[in-house]
Amino acid sequence: MTIEDDIAFLERVPMLHRLGTGALRILAIGAESYTVEAGQMLFAAGDAADCAYIVQEGSFTLAAQRSGGDEAIAEPGTLLGETALLAETLRPATATARQASTVMRISRAMFLKMLESYPEAAQRLRELIAARAEQWASEMEKVRAALARGTGPQ
Length: 154
Description:
By secondary structure, this protein is α+β, with helices and mostly antiparallel strands. The protein has one domain: Jelly Rolls, CATH 2.60.120.10. The protein is built from 4 helices and 10 strands. The chain is globular, with a radius of gyration of 17 Å.
């Protein structure tokens, strides 16, 4: 893939498309692509996370750390570990390749450096995070109100 192809791919990732072409160019240049064989673990639940991965090709099973947790499937365009781009965190799930897959790795250090260089991208990211936090707070208030009524979440 060319840098232009990588930028076009990054523009399709919901959290990243708001950053703008210049910021995405920096990410495309600094990102590393890896091939993961079928059945190979990309990361394990509880591991320290210093980067995010974007599934380029193939897919991954995500299994939560707690036993009996649901599994999810991550397909092309899925950003795995977005919180790790901004803060130290632990992986909440184990990601295992379902077939030979390719991922793009974006390190936290490179992502933060990009935000320093593109303050307008940092502002748009702040706005996205604030909107998400507002939505989560609204949803939690609905749950609290339902529990107070004794009806459970709707």
